[in-house]
């Protein structure tokens, strides 16, 4: 994991249980004697997230109803740490402040990126989602924790930025965890494989959590990000860095080629290693480095 990620050495279950005693009921011993939880149990996963958020990020109120995607906090924090590094390359100024605004496209009911980004770097967030219930729940989390996060409904499901980024807005970055699968059947099959890997047996449930818009879209991840790239060019002067997670390594090359055709001046693939999992996000800007530095200077005053 990123060297600044507080989760890089694993879970300290004693400390987490001290912060959230209810986690203790889910902790058990592995064959090697180390503490763990049942990662196939959605309630145990949610309780672990609550403990992590309370212990490491001082987030007292966080909850997630059944059926919504429950995000792994360490991996989500890793994306933010690497995004912070990317933005810092363009200036020596302090970007750990509330003048920095970042957009989370498809924030979900968990509101996880804005919550972590504010705790880590004091960033303000503009968070959007097409799902009405997710927007309602995310707004509640922002209000309960008194966080500088504006949650809005994206009323045009085929759009990413239009209708959300206003003419007067300047954003340092956008981020997104796109739907991975290209169909509901593919999403269910992926969840079944994950369940069998964790438990060694077949599942009677459809998935690990996640609404349809969180799990799949026509054309899958590649089509989703290509469409995002097309729309991002219309906001080239308002956003310094656009970014999105890319789950499939084989999508890197076609996305980079598509970005060149779209007129992106700079493109980066940022690798992230999280234990046995290797992930990445793609970042692009329609500004060259001097333009990005000047834009940051205007944002930071």
* Coarse structural class: alpha/beta
Specify the overall morphology: globular
Round the Cα radius of gyration to an integer and report it. Answer: 19 Å
Largest sheet: 7 strands, mixed
List the domain count as a whole number.
1
Number of strands: 9
CATH topology: Rossmann fold
Name the CATH architecture: 3-Layer(aba) Sandwich
Approximately how much helix is present in the residues? 25-40%
Q: Mean pLDDT score, rounded?
A: 89
**Which segments are poorly predicted (pLDDT under 50) over 5 or more consecutive residues?**
187-192, 204-208
What order do the strands of the largest sheet run in, or round the barrel if closed? 5-4-3-6-7-9-8
The total of helices stands at: 10
Which series of helices and strands comes N to C? HEEHHEHEHEEHHHEHEEH
Query: Cα distance, first to last residue?
Result: 32 Å
Q: Note the beta-strand portion.
A: 15-25%
What is the CATH H-level superfamily? Vaccinia Virus protein VP39
CATH class: Alpha Beta
